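Try this one yourself first.
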């Protein structure tokens, strides 16, 4: 599935599959302005670190397209720089958002002599390139990672790190898809992932569409399932990986990793190199998004807590590097100690 983020070049519109409504309804949200893209990111019409990055690339295109429509000769550079800043801060944890906006900003800088109208097609090409590259990266990552899974194994995953969370194919689910394409019989346990239910609603939806056997489990069933020997490996995605390998991912991931270590089950993170943020020394410096309380207080629009009760709604947690068996990237599997393997992978890429 690669059409859940689709830019219509002729109409200059971004079409997003509304992930809030899945699995019961497939509805498209159309964005014509960067403000609409920022709102779509904040309200999780589209979510998942690489998908957020690709969406932001097209958001940068829309911001410029609307400035082009202004009266000729109107200064646009300051307004455009401000729009890119706002876009980069739509959500705080996924580093792919900053990475994508900076890539678009670099494209602008490389053509700084052009008018807004002349720049627009270059920015559009860059955003499309980013989208194509993300699918290719996920496929390469899947190939690199599928070797850690053996025929007949059951893999647990947390949240949705699938096609919906990327431009297509997925990171954690990309590893699983590649293993299945290699002829292995893989079963998946999708943790439901309270409160937004990415596992129950999205991971189960896309795996079922691909006929990959999937069972949904409550987040708090993890210890029982592992203790009964029902989990052979865990593969999750990432929103930001610090220079030492500490990994921010959906809230609950750290608990899954600690349980995996207690039960001697390998725990893999699957993410493109663009998710690694070497400016962040370790997990303590990763900003953790806090989301609206009603996401926890309500389920399907109905209250599940007494009215007004305070709640914690941290959207991510950080898994310390010592719980991670390997980081699966498009350039191969990084092994501990991660400070060294991450530095080597990034310098090889440079
Ligand atoms: O809040 P979300 O749904 O954007 O969080 C998504 C996750 O935590 C994913 O696991 C992560 O972005 C990896 S997606 C390939």
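Now uncover the answer:
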């Amino acid at each position: 599935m690669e059409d859940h983020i689709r830019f219509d070049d002729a109409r200059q519109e971004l079409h997003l599959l509304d992930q809030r409504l899945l699995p019961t309804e497939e509805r498209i949200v159309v964005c014509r302005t960067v403000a609409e893209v920022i709102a779509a990111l904040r309200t999780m019409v589209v979510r998942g670190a690489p998908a957020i990055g690709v969406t932001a690339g097209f958001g940068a295109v829309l911001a410029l397209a609307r400035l082009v429509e202004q009266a000729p000769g109107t200064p646009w550079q300051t307004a455009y720089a401000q729009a890119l800043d706002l876009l980069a801060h739509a959500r705080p944890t996924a580093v792919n958002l900053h990475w994508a906006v900076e890539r678009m900003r670099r494209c602008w800088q490389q053509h700084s002599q052009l008018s807004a109208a002349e720049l627009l097609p270059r920015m559009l090409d860059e955003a499309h390139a980013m989208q194509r590259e993300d699918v290719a990266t996920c496929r390469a990552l899947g190939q690199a990672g599928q070797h850690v899974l053996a025929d007949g194994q059951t893999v647990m995953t947390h949240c949705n790190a699938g096609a919906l969370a990327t431009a297509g194919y997925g990171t954690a689910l990309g590893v699983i898809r590649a293993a299945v394409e290699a002829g292995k019989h893989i079963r998946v346990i999708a943790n439901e992932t309270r409160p937004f239910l990415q596992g129950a609603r999205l991971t189960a939806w896309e795996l079922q569409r691909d006929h990959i056997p999937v069972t949904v489990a409550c987040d708090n069933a993890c210890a029982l399932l592992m203790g009964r020997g029902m989990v052979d490996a865990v593969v999750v995605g990432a929103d930001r990986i610090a220079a030492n390998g500490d990994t921010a991912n959906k809230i609950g991931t750290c608990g899954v990793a600690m349980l995996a270590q207690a039960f001697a089950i390998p725990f893999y993170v699957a993410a493109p190199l663009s998710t690694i943020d070497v400016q962040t020394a370790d997990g303590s410096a990763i900003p953790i998004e806090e989301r609206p309380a009603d996401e926890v207080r309500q389920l399907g629009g109905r209250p599940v807590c007494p009215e007004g009760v305070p709640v914690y709604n941290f959207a991510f947690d950080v898994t310390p590097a010592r719980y991670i068996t390997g980081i699966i990237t498009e350039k191969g599997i990084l092994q501990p100690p991660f400070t060294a393997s991450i530095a080597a992978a990034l310098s090889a890429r440079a």
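Discussion: The pocket of MRU is lined by residues 47-50, 94, 159, 161, 165-166, 171, 198, 237-239, 249-250, 315 (CB under 6 Å). The chain is about 40% helix and 15% strand.
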